[in-house]
Amino acid sequence: MEKFVVTFARGFGTGGKEIASKLAKELGINCYENRILTLASQMSGLDEQLFQEVNEKIRQNGGFASFLRGLPRSKSYIARNEKFVSDDTLFEYQRKIIENLADTESCVIVGKCADYVLKGRNNVVSVYIEAPRAFCVQRTMEHMGVTEEVAVATIEHTDKFRADYYEYYTHGNYWTNPINYDITLNSEKVGIDNCVKVIKNLLEIKGLI
Fold this sequence. Notes:
Blueprint: E1 5-10, H1 16-27, E2 30-32, H2 34-44, H3 48-60, H4 65-69, H5 88-104, E3 107-110, H6 114-117, E4 124-130, H7 133-144, H8 148-169, E5 183-186, H9 187-190, H10 192-205
Parallel strand pairs: 1-3, 1-4, 2-3, 4-5
Helix pairs in contact: 1-10, 2-5, 7-8
């Protein structure tokens, strides 16, 4: 079977990360999110000669996947309260990692403009998860153990960060544009588990699983 990638973009509190993780588990493939940023951050701090040595070793060992699997996975919500500040070098490393993953294994990739980085590939399915604000607020309160006020502020800050990030690195596209994605799902109306089923059905329709 051909290698395939499912990319996820999601509003904060929608359950998008949970959907991505469940999908990967059911398909028996890896789910990558913040480990990509961690590895890209480590690599962008290397001088050119050291980077070339690391890059060659990674190439010889079959790609970035084994390095990423050795990094700890984040089990908690990661909220963005800071303003978006561009870092083109860091994004370039992330792009290389994402492209290498797509070349070497079937996987799920959350965020990081992966849908844009991998656009045009026939073996990629891009998903956007959204939900009404009240649902996201309630879910954030439960999962983070915070007040409604904090939940609202966290969602607003994080979604603004993601929107600005996406617009900058896609050269003016906007994050919530449904045209960017193969499918957009409302996680409140469809349900977390049913979102997983729908995405698996789409993969079957496209002949990827």
